Amino acid sequence: MRTLMVTTFVSLDGVMQAPGGGDEDRDGGFEHGGWAVPHMDQQLIQRMAALVGRAGALLLGRRTYDTFAATWPLADADDPIGARMNSLRKYVASRTLESVSWQNSTLLTGDVAKAVGELKQGEGGEIQVHGSGRLIQTLLAHDLVDSFHVLVFPVLLGSGKRLFADGTMPSGLRLVDTTASDTGVLISTYARDGRVEYGAMGPETGNW
Question: Is the pTM of this model over 0.85?
Answer without folding.
Answer: yes
